[in-house]
Structure formats: structure tokens, C-alpha cells
Inverse folding.
């Protein structure tokens, strides 16, 4: 319990060493002197050593009595080239915007939004003014350690699709996984203008993916036979979710499918996953009434917006695929 009370300190140390590139600079199967490591990272050796010793006490890096630094299984996860790694997670979860919102968490108990209490503006407005946080968020979503994009692509049969529209699709990671498995469909990623501008041309699969900037509160690409919402609704209040879903419903003739890729919260915490409840509070800290939703909450939102929940498919990751059809 004592360590849990100081867990924020560990998270902040992990960000510090990941931001400066220490995990990438330590040889994967060797060791490096602290002075050399600090020089590569452009930081002072003594403070870096003190942080690394604390992490090494938790089996994150190894630090010898002479100050040589090596990797452990845990610290290798912080490398950018680690399969299913935690590099972007370590850097994102304690960025200033998130850090400040959690510091104001008590505001939620009084009915306010912690992020707005800390920064005076909603999260997306903050990210527009701090593009470094926005791009880091995009990188985290594209490289989430549970491989959720591949898990969604594997859980559902997309082989009969012609055009797949990924709404709020970020950098297009889910769509690339799907199209990589199925040669017939093409896709369109829709997100904010600043997001789609950051997508590399190399990520568009030789023209099989196109991008469209805009607001999913106003309009979505027409003509798709499958619409995807991956980790989108969890960021919005019920009223905002209804606006998003109704905008999509206006573009979905009979036979079109809406697939929501999100965690479905287990109401009983003795049966659910700790990560899911942490993420639910994260949504509260950042967005207020936004949340991780239960099956019944998804069914109600879909019903009110003109869809009918068909089934919920589990995936190999934390999330599920919530399939619905227009009513």
C-alpha cells in the first residue's frame, strides 16, 4: 500500500528516463557507464544515476556499484523498438496536461472537470495549443501496448467490405491492420485536420487509404459499408456520443454496419480488469462525464441514435468489438 501511495513518483521517473532516450541508449544486451549514457542523453550524470538506481530497485534497468547501466526485461519495454512496448505510454501518461488534470482530481467530486479546473479549457482545445502532446497522444494510440488495432482486425470478418470509414481514426493504425489482412477493401480515415495532416504518405498503403479532415459532429464520409469508432466514444459525454452516432446514422443506409472498438466495462469490480477502472477514472479526470461504458450503456446510446446492438465480440486485447446495425 505504501508503494501505491507513491506510484506517481515512479511514473514520473519513467517518463523522465524515456523522454531523454536512456532506454534506447543502453545497449540491449550490454552495459554502459553512467557518464557515457548521460552524455548521449544530454543530461547530468548524477541525477540520472539517482533516478536509475530507484528504478533498478524495481527491476527496471540494472545499475552496478560502479555506475554501469544495463537492461532488464522491464526496462527493454521502454525502448522504441520493443515489440508491444511501453515507450509511448511511459512518455504520455504524465505529460503536463494529464499530470495537471490528475492533480485537480478532487474537482470531479464537486461536479467539475479536473482538466478544465487545472488548465481552464477542455482537453482538445489544450492539445491544439500544445501540439507536442497531441502528436504524442497520436503515437500512443497507434502503438498501444496491447496491440488493440491488430486485435480488432482479427476479431471481425472484414473480407466482404468495400469501403471502411474509420471515424476519429487518428493515424489510421486500425485501418492499416484491417487492410493488411484483406486485399479487397479500401478505407478512409477521418479526424481533425491537424491529425490527418500528420499522417505520413507511407502510411496510406499506396492509395488504398485516403484521409479526410473534419468534425464527426457535423458530417462523416458517405458511402462506406462499415463505419469504425475505435476508442472514440469513451472520450465524450452521453450527449456528445449521441451527436456523433446520429451524424453517422445519417450516412448509414440499411445493411451498413457500425463497429465500436472499445473496452466494455464490467460493472462488478471483483470480476473486471483493474486497467479498465483506471482508464474510466482517467476519462473522468480529462473529460468529466466521459467514461468507459457497460454493455447496457452502449445498448442505450445505440438505441437512442437509431442503431440496434447486434453482438459484442471479444478480442485478444482489452477491448471488444460492439457491432450494431441501423434500425
Amino acid at each position: 500500500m505504501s508503494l501505491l501511495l507513491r506510484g506517481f513518483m515512479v511514473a514520473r521517473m519513467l517518463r523522465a528516463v524515456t523522454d531523454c532516450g536512456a532506454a534506447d541508449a543502453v545497449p540491449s544486451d550490454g552495459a554502459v557507464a553512467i557518464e557515457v549514457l548521460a552524455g548521449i542523453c544530454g543530461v547530468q550524470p548524477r541525477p540520472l544515476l539517482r533516478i536509475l538506481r530507484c528504478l533498478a530497485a524495481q527491476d527496471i534497468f540494472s545499475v552496478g556499484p560502479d555506475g554501469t547501466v544495463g537492461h532488464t526485461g522491464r526496462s527493454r519495454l521502454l525502448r522504441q523498438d520493443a515489440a508491444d512496448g511501453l515507450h509511448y505510454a511511459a512518455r504520455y501518461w504524465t505529460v503536463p496536461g494529464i499530470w495537471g488534470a490528475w492533480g485537480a482530481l478532487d474537482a470531479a467530486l464537486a461536479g467539475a472537470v479536473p482538466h478544465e479546473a487545472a488548465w481552464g479549457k477542455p482537453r482538445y482545445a489544450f492539445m491544439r495549443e500544445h501540439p507536442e502532446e497531441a502528436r504524442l497522444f497520436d503515437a500512443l494510440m497507434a502503438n498501444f501496448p496491447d496491440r488493440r488495432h491488430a486485435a480488432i482486425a482479427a476479431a471481425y470478418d472484414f473480407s466482404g467490405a468495400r469501403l471502411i470509414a474509420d471515424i476519429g481514426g487518428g493515424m489510421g493504425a486500425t485501418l492499416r491492420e484491417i487492410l493488411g489482412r484483406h486485399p479487397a477493401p479500401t478505407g478512409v480515415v477521418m479526424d481533425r485536420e491537424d491529425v490527418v495532416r500528420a499522417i505520413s504518405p507511407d502510411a496510406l498503403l499506396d492509395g488504398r487509404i485516403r484521409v479526410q479532415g473534419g468534425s464527426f459532429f457535423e458530417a462523416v464520409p458517405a458511402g462506406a459499408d462499415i463505419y469504425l469508432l475505435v476508442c472514440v466514444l469513451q472520450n465524450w459525454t452521453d450527449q456528445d456520443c449521441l451527436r456523433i452516432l446520429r451524424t453517422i446514422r445519417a450516412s448509414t443506409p440499411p445493411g451498413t454496419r457500425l463497429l465500436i472498438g472499445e473496452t466494455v466495462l464490467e460493472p462488478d469490480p471483483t470480476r473486471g480488469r483493474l486497467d479498465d477502472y483506471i482508464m474510466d477514472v482517467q476519462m473522468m479526470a480529462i473529460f468529466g462525464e466521459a467514461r468507459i461504458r457497460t454493455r447496457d450503456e452502449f445498448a442505450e446510446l445505440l438505441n437512442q441514435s437509431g442503431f440496434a446492438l447486434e453482438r459484442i465480440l471479444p478480442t485478444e486485447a482489452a477491448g471488444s468489438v460492439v457491432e450494431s446495425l441501423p434500425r
Notes: The chain has three domains: 2-83, 96-129, 141-326. The first helix runs from residue 2 to 5. The mean pLDDT is 95. DSSP finds 18 helices and ten strands in the chain.
